[in-house]
Amino acid sequence: MKILFVHNNFPAQYRNIVAALAREPGFELVAIGAPTSRSLPSVKLVRYALPKADISGTHPFARRFDIECRRAEQVMYSLSSLQMSGFSPDLILAHPGWGETLPLRSIFPKARLLVYCEFFYGAEGRDIGFDPEFPVPGLDGHIGLHVKNATTLLALEDCEMGISPTRWQKSTFPPHYQSKIDVIHEGIDTGRMRPNPHARLTLPNGQYLRPSDEVVTFVARNLEPLRGYHIFMRALPEILRCRPNAQVIIIGRSGVSYGLPPPTGTTWKSTFLAEVRGRLDLSRVHFLGGVAYETFIAALQVSSAHVYFTYPFVLSWSMLEAMSAGCLVIGSDTAPVREIIRSGDNGLLVPFFAVDELAERIIEALAQPTRFSELRAAARHHVINHYDAEQVCVPRMRLLLNQRLGAPPPGGTHRPVATTHKAAE
After folding, report:
1. What three-state secondary structure class fits 401?
2. What DSSP designation does 391 have?
3. Is the pLDDT of residue 415 over 70?
4. pTM of the model
5. Domains in the chain, ordered, with CATH?
6. How far apart, in whole angstroms, are the C-alpha atoms of residue 212 and residue 404?
7. Residue 420: per-residue pLDDT
8. Which candidate, 70, 90, 107, 138, has a CA 20 to 30 Å from the CA of 261?
9. What distance in Å separates the CA atoms of residue 255 and residue 274, rounded to the nearest whole number?
């Protein structure tokens, strides 16, 4: 069976299912991605060039769609090249978020299409308008927000099925599309991400930390309000005042992944650090920036309290990885986190804007570590049972590919499944 993956940052969310399929006979795997995509064994990777675009003359509502169409054009060239080489996929797995799905049906109309339904933008109840500290977009901003869903809506029309990693993320999509969407997380490597009583995290200054130390960890791709960085920083002065031996590890870059950009010439990291700098012992606050994965694992393994805050938005892998590592996760009481963490059972929840309560929970965790041992164990147990890649998520994905989209079962033979898409009739 021939399977094509399309994702600008391949393998991204497809890493575990790709690895599983690559180990099985009978699959020809091809991927299309942007220059940042990474090759994997047994997968032919075709990288497309990022288009240069001057969108200054494009209407503001249409600028994102303009860029997505230019990217789609580059993907079209890559698809045509594959087609000319004789490759015609039976199944395509693609992320619609950057416009890459736009040309798929035109070039491979008979392929079955499974799209990754990560998030559907909305003006209320999600990332926009959640935090009163930051301005709500005006009418132009709301219209622009709706336009951001254009390529996703087109992909939902084209596809046989969609996949969302969590129930809440599925719920962000229009109700009439939700019947098309299954919920299957891509999975966590719980064997690699596990507790280690002998872990050691070496800091840039040569200092090292162990699980017996008082360590507070905070992780985000970029340090920004959408992931609660400002709330966490405001809680630090009281934590460090009450716990003189506590060390704080902050992992994340200084850019913007999501949400509003900082004021010109600044970063969110520097903005909120400046707000509390005079009340912090900075010798105990360690900004590590972006780190190697092994450093990330070590940080979680020595953590006494791990803080994960987010607006109602896409759930980060890092929260589930922290739970898998046996961390005490103190999370924001927001919908994506509530789906996973039951406060007092497998972690703790704090209202997103409750700075003082966040500080109190962290101080308690540092002062009485054994009190939360059962929550740590329950957190790992929950991830193993529901989000383990090898035992739970990949088998569920393989079952879906087999029963709903015609892929052969592991070690089995191909049984064609009739597609419901008109272009393939």
Report:
1. helix
2. I
3. no
4. 0.93
5. 2-187+388-419 (3.40.50.2000), 201-386 (3.40.50.2000)
6. 49
7. 36
8. 70
9. 17
